[in-house]
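During the reporting period the student researcher (J.K.) took over the structure-prediction task from the postdoctoral fellow and processed the backlog of single-chain submissions. One of the processed entries is reproduced below for the supervisory committee.
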Amino acid sequence: MKTVKTLKWSMVLLSVFVLITTLWSELSSSYKSFLTGVTGHHWVTKSVFSIILFFGLYLLLPCKDNKSEKDAPLKAAKTIFWTVTIISLIIFLYYIFHFFG
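J.K. obtained the following structure tokens:
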């Protein structure tokens, strides 16, 4: 059985993937064209890739059951929350600087 840690790391790595692919597609028209060519729209392709990546990571990451950590779900939720918050802020600031710059 997979653990909370596996879910946490799948989400964290997926968030980093979304950051990298979002910024890369904004900086490289050829990459954005590639994404658009896969499904017809670059955001749809990023979503499809994200779903595949999440389940791939979840299935491939090692499963270590640490029963001594009863607060593991809370720790995982905090880690995911802060990771997504920071990455969202980075993307938001990129678009702000891009718009005003």
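The committee noted the following: The helical segments are 4-27, 29-39, 42-60, 72-100.
J.K. will present the remaining backlog at the next meeting.
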